[in-house]
UniProtKB/TrEMBL annotation:
Acetylation as UniProt keyword: no
Name of the protein in question: Adenylate kinase
Annotated function: Catalyzes the reversible transfer of the terminal phosphate group between ATP and AMP. Plays an important role in cellular energy homeostasis and in adenine nucleotide metabolism.
Binding annotation for AMP: T31, R36, A57, L58, V59, G85, F86, P87, R88, Q92, R160, R171
Annotated ATP binding sites: G10, A11, G12, K13, G14, T15, R127, S136, Y137, A199
Reaction(s) this enzyme catalyzes, per UniProt: AMP + ATP = 2 ADP
Residues bound to Zn(2+): C130, C133, C150, C153
Chain spans, region NMP: 30-59
């Protein structure tokens, strides 16, 4: 399965990705996670990406495209992959298409998660992530069993640096301006399927799995 998860910040891309990659046994490629790992490790890439991310802006295309291309050429992507948070601009989508057609591959499905702004803000400001394993929670919607502690590994739950209200608003605006045009782009290509991202976790997951089945 080759798939893209598209949707505004907080739509549930990361949450659904974790379940989808487990079911379809494919790698989860999240450009946001790759950047956060680089920031944590203090790499050159991390240093470059940091200020854009903290401001809620996009990291420049030239820092993103080659990184993803390299990742897609690794052995574990041979039988498919799930892209989460990439592409995010028309330029990135065109580069991805070029890469796929050069490799004689095609995208099976672009999963578009739709969530209204009000819900996005509630979700992002209430999100907590595990410092150690990255698992994602929500203080109201998906609370951990014990406050502030990861169910999976016992790690401390923290708030992402870009989940404060000012940065969240900026990320949503950036999405509207630079990423939302991809909906039309993929609609035209015929690979886009819309999902109500405001449904429950399980409902969204089941709907995606069903659509993937129909696509095959
Ligand atoms: P990235 O890490 O990709 O963040 P994002 O797109 O802003 O998305 P999020 O991770 O915030 O949200 P999500 O949709 O995964 O939602 P989640 O599942 O956690 O990017 C971060 C930054 O990196 C960007 O701003 C940019 O600077 C840079 N970057 C990354 N890729 C780039 C690229 N390609 N080009 C340029 N720059 C790039 O869910 C959110 C919350 O809601 C959670 O608390 C969750 O528990 C809850 N929730 C999820 N689903 C449900 C549900 N069904 N019901 C109730 N609650 C739910
Ligand atoms: Zn954890």
């Amino acid at each position: 399965l080759r798939a893209v998860l598209l949707g505004p910040p907080g739509a549930g891309k990361g949450t659904q990705a974790v379940r989808l990659v487990e079911k379809y046994e494919i790698p989860h490629i999240s450009t946001g996670d790759i950047f956060r790992k680089n920031i944590k490790e203090g790499t050159e890439l991390g240093k470059k990406a940091q200020e854009y991310m903290n401001a809620g802006a996009l990291v420049p295309d030239e820092l993103v495209v080659d990184l993803v291309k390299d990742r897609l050429q690794q052995d574990d992507c041979k039988n498919g992959f799930l892209l989460d948070g990439f592409p995010r601009t028309i330029f990135q989508a065109e580069k991805l298409d070029e890469f796929l057609s050069e490799s004689n591959l095609k995208m099976d499905i672009v999963i578009n998660l739709k969530v209204e702004k009000e819900a996005l803000i509630k979700r992002l400001t209430g999100r907590r992530v595990c410092k150690d394993c990255g698992a994602s929670y929500h203080i109201v919607n998906i609370p951990p069993k014990k406050e502030g502690v990861c169910d999976i590994c016992g790690g401390e739950l923290i708030q992402r640096k870009d989940d404060n209200i000012e940065t969240v608003e900026n990320r949503i605006n950036v999405y509207e301006e630079q990423t939302a045009p991809l909906i039309g782009y993929y609609k035209e290509a015929g690979s886009l399927v819309d999902f109500d991202g405001e449904a429950s976790l399980d409902e969204v997951f089941d709907a995606i799995v069903q659509a993937i089945g129909e696509q095959e």
